[in-house]
């Protein structure tokens, strides 16, 4: 113990003054009585000749108050040594989808983290929110993102921790510099889907390991295995396909609604009918009285043929709007844009996609689309005058312009609700050798305990007691 204000002990001199004043009051007390007879009898008693010491409670209370107050004014301090609590920040990479409310093998991960840092206070960090963390420590939420984004958030938000621990699906170069790196799983999981593709009536499911999922409403058409994962192809047979697999909620795929189609004008010829049958045999279209798509008929979205005026196209050059969806994968040289001998008048209500130029001057348009991309107009009929393969591709692209999706790429099935699948990294998680370290420096700290307030309280109580006696 030490004193911060030792000069305050000079106040103890007041005890000497108090003692001297008390001594002046100690002596025989004179009392006037009416006769000496009583005193003769008192003097005859042996004990009356002995002088007894007086115990003055008031004196002791005042003296004690002075003593304690003087010591308190000197500010005595007791130095204490203690080891502060060790805080370890633990990042656990998700095995489930980022917005999933549950997490596989979570309790096992928490127990491993607790065993790796015994006695420490653990703070767990996740990408996204968990409804029931079930972890031996505080749980903190990170904004979901890729592994690099989440690690950057973790490093910033855990700056106050004495150490860090990371449970990862696979090693990351920057993680070992942060702290101890452990594998997220102790054994690779089998049959965890991480990607679903729908191509027409084909359903492709990518999953880890060899274990097959349970599939209803579709039959297995083929499978291939490579690098610890599997790709299974299914042919959908029912209007609804249900897939149940490890680590995910059941997936439900349902047939997409068919688009209403009306065909008229030039599209009723044998050439055009054969073209439509070849292209739309697997597309989601059906004849409708109120069509969404019209071919040479009035509909909200439509293709129009032979809408240009006849013109002399000798010596004309053709210009294309670069990068437009109409020309995707299309061999432009295989189409004869000028054979129809027709041109569209330029209009502010349409965007030119194919134009005719002579001497650098624009004569008119061969193909144009409305500003809202709903009506595609052809000056002539390039479908009838071109090679069938090129004409089919042009028609597929043209329908993709007005519909927003090419019929050849239209999926016949779509997930019901939000599709929540773990990432490929999470599905293929496997054990690996730990890296980094969890070294925590011994950090014994000193803290001072000042006793002044307690001594002042004691002096105050003694003073109050003395005041009560003097009432």
Structure description:
The protein is an alpha/beta fold. It folds into 4 domains: 6-26 and 37-76 and 451-469, no CATH class; 82-188 and 429-448, no CATH class; 193-256 and 414-424, Immunoglobulin-like; 259-408, no CATH class. It is built from 9 helices and 26 strands. The chain has helices spanning 13-24, 37-44, 57-73, 106-116, 147-157, 270-280, 388-403, 424-427, 452-469, and strands at residues 2-3, 76-82, 87-92, 121-127, 138-142, 163-168, 180-183, 193-199, 202-208, 214-216, 218-226, 229-236, 240-244, 251-255, 259-263, 285-287, 293-295, 301-304, 309-310, 317-320, 342-343, 350-358, 361-370, 375-378, 413-415, 445-450. The strands form 6 sheets. It has an 8-stranded mixed sheet, covered by helices on one side. β23 (361-370) and β24 (375-378) form a beta hairpin. α1 packs antiparallel against α3 (57-73), α3 runs antiparallel to α9 and α6 (270-280) crosses α7 (388-403). The longest helix has 18 residues, at 452-469. The two termini are 39 Å apart. The relative contact order is 0.14. Mean pLDDT is 83; it is low at 48-55.
């Amino acid at each position: 113990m030490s004193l911060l204000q030792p000069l305050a002990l000079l106040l103890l001199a007041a005890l000497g003054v108090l003692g001297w004043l008390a001594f002046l009051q100690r002596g025989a007390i004179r009392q006037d009585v009416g006769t000496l007879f009583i005193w003769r009898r008192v003097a005859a008693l042996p004990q009356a000749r002995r002088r007894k010491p007086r115990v003055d409670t008031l004196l002791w209370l005042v003296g004690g108050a002075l003593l304690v107050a003087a010591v308190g004014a000197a500010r005595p301090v007791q130095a204490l040594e203690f080891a502060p609590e060790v805080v370890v920040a633990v990042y656990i990479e998700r095995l489930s989808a980022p917005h999933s409310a549950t997490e596989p093998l979570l309790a096992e991960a928490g127990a491993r983290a607790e065993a790796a840092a015994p006695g420490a206070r653990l703070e767990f960090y996740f990408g996204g929110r968990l409804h029931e963390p079930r972890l031996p420590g505080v749980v903190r939420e990170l904004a979901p993102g890729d592994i690099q984004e989440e690690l950057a958030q973790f490093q910033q938000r855990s700056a106050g921790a004495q150490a860090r621990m990371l449970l990862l699906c696979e090693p990351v170069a920057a993680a070992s510099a942060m702290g101890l790196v452990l594998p997220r799983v102790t054994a690779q999981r089998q049959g965890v889907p991480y990607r679903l593709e729908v191509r027409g009536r084909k359903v492709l499911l990518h999953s880890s390991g060899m274990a097959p999922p349970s599939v209803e409403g579709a039959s297995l058409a083929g499978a291939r295995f490579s690098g610890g994962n599997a790709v299974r192809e299914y042919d959908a047979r029912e209007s609804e396909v249900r897939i149940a697999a490890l680590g995910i909620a059941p997936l439900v795929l349902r047939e997409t609604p068919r688009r209403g189609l009306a065909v008229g004008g030039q599209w009723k010829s044998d050439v055009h009918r054969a073209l439509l049958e070849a292209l739309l045999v697997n597309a989601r279209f059906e004849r409708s009285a109120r069509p969404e798509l019209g071919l040479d008929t009035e509909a909200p979205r439509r293709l129009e043929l032979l809408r240009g005026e006849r013109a002399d196209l000798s010596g004309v050059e053709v210009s294309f709007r670069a990068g437009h969806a109409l020309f995707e994968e299309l061999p432009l040289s295989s189409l004869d844009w000028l054979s129809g001998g027709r041109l569209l008048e330029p209009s502010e209500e349409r965007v030119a996609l194919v134009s005719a130029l002579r001497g650098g001057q624009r004569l008119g348009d061969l193909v144009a689309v409305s500003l809202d991309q709903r009506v595609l107009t052809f000056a002539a009929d390039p479908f009838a005058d071109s090679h069938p393969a090129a004409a089919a591709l042009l028609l597929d692209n043209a329908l993709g312009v007005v519909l927003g999706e090419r019929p050849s790429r239209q999926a016949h099935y779509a997930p019901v609700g939000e599709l929540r699948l773990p990432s490929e990294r999470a599905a293929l998680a496997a054990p690996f050798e730990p890296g980094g370290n969890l070294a925590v420096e011994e950090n014994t700290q000193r803290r001072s305990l000042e006793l002044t307030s307690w001594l002042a309280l004691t002096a105050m109580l003694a003073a109050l007691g003395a005041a009560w006696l003097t009432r």
